[in-house]
Specification:
- This protein is an alpha/beta fold.
- It has one domain: Collagenase (Catalytic Domain), CATH 3.40.390.
- It has eight helices and four strands.
- It has a four-stranded mixed beta sheet with strand order 1-2-4-3.
- Helix 3 crosses helix 7.
- 28% of the residues are buried.
Length: 211
């Protein structure tokens, strides 16, 4: 009996010690490994096809990927999505498909695009850069394709946090969420895009670990 109790205590101490070590040695442990350790969902941002990007534009894009992945997989992101309130003060998104904030968060973190249900845990981005200087459209996609079109007119002047917000907005469409117009800023694509924008900017200004 004593041996059994000792084993449990030892295992408990080792688990706590391992967790503490993981946090202390953050620079040596990938966030994905910590999420796996804690048994929480983790979304990996992947550029599946990047047409038209090269040099500085590709570097900006890849930086946006990295910051997106960093902030999405945090407790702060989870809290912001679940506790989101629209302009009416209601804890819900507009154009929410009848889903609660919690359900929307779960769908987002599951990472199953409507046209690519067999790749859970991944933000799969198929991107094409185009140039239309007369357009007021930042980017667009349709329900019939994985492709997301990004307007060079805006991309070239966007900062990393703005690129991350736009990518998140468009990818959220891939999960089946939409908006009634470009003015529906409380819709899932717009609101979560703004959350990512603010969190990436915060992370860029404070590059240490965030949870």
């Amino acid at each position: 009996m004593k041996k059994w109790i000792f084993s449990i205590l030892t295992l408990s101490l080792l688990s706590k010690e391992s967790f503490s070590s993981t946090l202390v040695n953050w620079d040596h442990v990938h966030h994905e490994e910590l999420s796996s350790f804690l048994g929480v969902p983790y979304l990996k941002v992947k550029g599946m096809s990047l047409e038209g990007f090269s040099g500085a534009s590709l570097q900006k894009l890849q930086s946006a990927f990295s910051f997106m992945e960093k902030v999405i997989n945090t407790e702060e992101f989870r809290s912001r999505v679940i506790n989101f309130k629209n302009k009416k003060g209601e804890r819900k998104f507009e154009s929410n498909r009848g889903l609660s904030n919690e359900e929307i968060y779960e769908i987002f973190m599951e990472g199953r695009e409507v046209l690519q249900m067999d790749t859970p845990g991944e933000v799969n981005l198929f991107l094409k850069l185009y140039d239309n200087p007369m357009s007021r459209v930042i980017g667009y996609t349709t329900s019939k394709t994985n492709l997301i079109n990004i307007n060079w007119k805006y991309f070239k002047q966007f900062k990393i946090h703005e690129v991350a917000a736009n990518l998140t907005h468009e990818w959220t469409h891939k999960l089946g969420f939409g908006h009634t117009s470009a003015k529906e800023h409380d819709s899932v694509p717009y609101a979560i895009g703004y959350i990512i924008r603010d969190m990436v900017l915060k992370s860029m200004n404070n590059p240490g670990p965030i949870f």
